[in-house]
TrEMBL record:
Xref: HAMAP family: dGTPase_type2 (MF_01212)
Record-given protein name: Deoxyguanosinetriphosphate triphosphohydrolase-like protein
Hydrolase listed as a keyword: yes
UniProt cross-references to SUPFAM superfamilies, sorted A to Z: HD-domain/PDEase-like
InterPro entries, A to Z: dGTPase, Diverse_Catalytic_Enzymes, dNTPase_2, HD/PDEase_dom, HD_domain, PHydrolase_assoc_dom
Organism encoding this protein: Clostridium omnivorum
Length: 342
């Protein structure tokens, strides 16, 4: 028996009926032969890990721009934390961990430099707006491999597309695995951003509303433990009631939402980081304006996109792919005077 088939047989034995079985995938845009060792979701996971866009996440900001410490999260370490939390929830519920891992590793691959500041800049400059989740799918389907894309499965792309947003009314992934990643993303970033903010001296534990800590826990690990277990048990309860969806219990979801709002008000949108956010926006805007006015200075691949899909799209693709360091270096090359006489 082919090893992939053995793995797929094991899925049927250990996963719950509502799981996404790799043998039943809706498939890829371009049909291809199955791998003899790996299931389709394992192939997708590996393709994402080996992509250039995934590697660039190590130099893209999570919250804090140009830190001098190696201990703060980057977009890459955030992605790894999301994947680990999601796999734990998936294992507890009985879902397909390979699909969960592929979605989690690719969910933020379309993020712009300088955290959400970059997304806000492109959203303002582009006529059709800009959303990082939509761009993640674009990067994986239209940008990687010089425009060929990675030819990922429908389930992975759907999970990536619908991972964003906190509102319960937002559209959900059609797989429970995708829904797990959506919750895991929130669990990860709210808690690790608290951890980083305390490390940076911008937040004290005592400043967090005590009622939120009493419900979720007074330490980083305790809060994650509370949220992960609650997500598992709430989801299993839903499944037992023939309502297959991933949720937190109403009280825990409300508390997490309040903690997230606290972070937005005091850290993400707070006055402490306002000056650095403004600098980041200025840099991105100026780099965008330069290449919009001089598309001939972009690499050939992006000039081809300009010819096929228009100037805004080509420039947006080029800017969105830049890491923080590359964007700053580009800004300096364009706008900062150089010594030409010694």
């Amino acid at each position: 028996m082919i090893i992939r088939e053995k793995i797929q047989n094991n899925e049927r034995k250990v996963l719950i009926p509502y799981a996404a079985f790799s043998a039943s995938t809706k498939g890829r845009h371009l049909e291809e032969e199955d791998d003899e060792i790996r299931t389709p979701y394992m192939v997708d996971r590996d393709r994402i890990i080996h992509s250039k866009s995934f590697r660039r996440l190590k130099h893209k900001t999570q919250v804090y721009i140009k830190t001098s410490s190696d201990h703060y999260r980057t977009r890459l370490t955030h992605t790894l934390e999301v994947a680990q939390i999601a796999k734990t929830i998936g294992k507890g519920v009985g879902l397909n961990e390979d699909l969960i891992e592929a979605i989690a590793l690719g969910h933020d691959i379309g993020h712009v430099a300088f955290a959400h500041n970059g997304e806000e800049v492109l959203n303002k400059l582009l006529p059709g707006g800009f959303k990082h989740n939509v761009n993640s799918v674009r990067v994986l389907t239209r940008i990687e491999k010089q425009g060929k894309g990675l030819n990922l499965t429908s389930e992975v792309l759907d999970g990536i597309l619908y991972h964003s947003g906190f509102s319960t009314s937002a559209k959900k992934s059609y797989t429970l695995e995708g829904q797990v990643v959506k919750y895991s993303d929130k669990i990860a970033y709210v808690n690790h951003d608290i951890d980083d903010s305390i490390r940076a001296g911008l937040l004290k534990e005592a400043e967090i509303p005590i009622e939120l800590l009493k419900t979720l826990g007074e330490s980083h690990s305790t809060r994650i433990d509370t949220l992960v277990k609650n997500c598992i048990y709430s989801t299993l309860k839903n499944i037992d009631s023939n309502k297959p969806e991933v949720t937190l219990s109403s009280d825990i979801e409300k508390t997490l939402s309040e903690l997230r709002n606290f972070m937005f008000e005091n850290i993400y949108k707070g006055v402490i980081l306002q000056e650095e956010r403004n600098k980041a926006r200025f840099v991105l805007e100026q780099v965008f304006i330069h290449f919009y006015n001089h598309p001939e200075n972009m690499p050939e691949f992006y000039r081809t996109i300009v010819d096929k899909e228009g100037l805004y799209q080509g420039v947006a693709d080029y800017i969105a792919g830049m890491s923080d360091d590359y964007c700053l270096a580009t800004f300096n090359k364009i706008y900062v005077p150089k010594f030409v006489i010694y």
